[in-house]
Amino acid sequence: MMVRAGRALLEALLDLAKIDAELDELNQRRREQKRKLAAAQQQLNQAKARLEDAKKQKKEKAKRAYHIEHQMKQVEAELRQVRERLLNAKTNEEFRLLKEEEQKLEEKISRMEDEALGVLDEEEKMDADVERFEDAVGEAEAHLKTCNAETEKELEKIERDEAFVAEKRRQVAEMVPPHVLERYERVRKKVGGSPLAEVDPVQQVCRGCQMQVTLQDIVEIRRGDKLVFCRYCSRILYIPEEQLSAEGD
């Protein structure tokens, strides 16, 4: 498809595409800065979550240690009572039964002591984990603060650059007829990039979609008095000026 136009319009559209590429790059830089900041915030959130989990586990271990200690005191009190009764045993059978009960209580206390030691070891590990995660939170907070400052500075620069480039775009866009500009924007949105595509005049291929163009399209592009559109991807087709000049030589 073709639209009446001169070479100057094609040059304006090429300039517009370059400017839009600059704006796309600035938007990409903005997204990267926001991703970097989000990653730093996520790192802090994860560090805080690990710290809270470690504190929770430490609290649970402390509760378990207190419970074991309380139980041991009860069993030790029972053991003292059994030993007092042993001193006053009247028969061999009573003595035997009390000795069995004494042994069971001693074994129970031994198991509880082992469990208490295990819980103590776990508490010490939790103490180390809490300290380590507190350090990690501090580091993550410092990193986020640095990222915030860097991102704010970079975003301000991007906004300044964007304002400058946007003004350039406005000036160039004024050189393009509204109906052509509307089509340019529509194709740009459709292809997700430049709405112009270079043509390989030898292979007769649109380098935007790699589909064939007609010989008549090549002739019209060389003539330069019409805009020629790819019938497949709708991009505006062109042959670089230096290549046209070389062909003329």
Derived from helix and strand composition plus strand pairing, the structural class reads alpha+beta
Biggest sheet descriptor: 5 strands, mixed
Distance between the termini: 29 Å
In percent, how much strand structure appears in the residues?
Answer: 5-15%
CATH topology category name of the largest domain? Helix Hairpins
What count of structural domains? 2
The averaged pLDDT comes out at 92
Helix percent reads over 70%
The secondary-structure element order is EHHHEEHEEH
The CATH class of the largest domain is Mainly Alpha
- The neighbouring-strand order within the major sheet is 1-4-5-2-3
Architecture of the largest domain, CATH level 2?
Orthogonal Bundle
Shape: rod-shaped
Query: How many DSSP E strands?
Result: 5
Structure explained in plain terms:
- The chain folds into two domains: 21-173, Helix Hairpins (Orthogonal Bundle); 177-248, no CATH class.
- It is built from five helices and five strands.
- The chain is 78% helix and 7% strand.
- It is α+β, with helices and mostly antiparallel strands and 249 residues long.
- Helix 1 runs antiparallel to helix 2.
- The chain has helices at residues 7-87, 92-173, 178-191, 215-223, 241-248; strands at 2-4, 196-200, 205-206, 226-229, 236-238.
- The two termini are 29 Å apart.
- The protein is rod-shaped and about 125 Å long.
- The mean pLDDT is 92.
- Strand 2 and strand 3 (205-206) form a beta hairpin.
- A five-stranded mixed sheet has the order 1-4-5-2-3, sandwiched between helices.
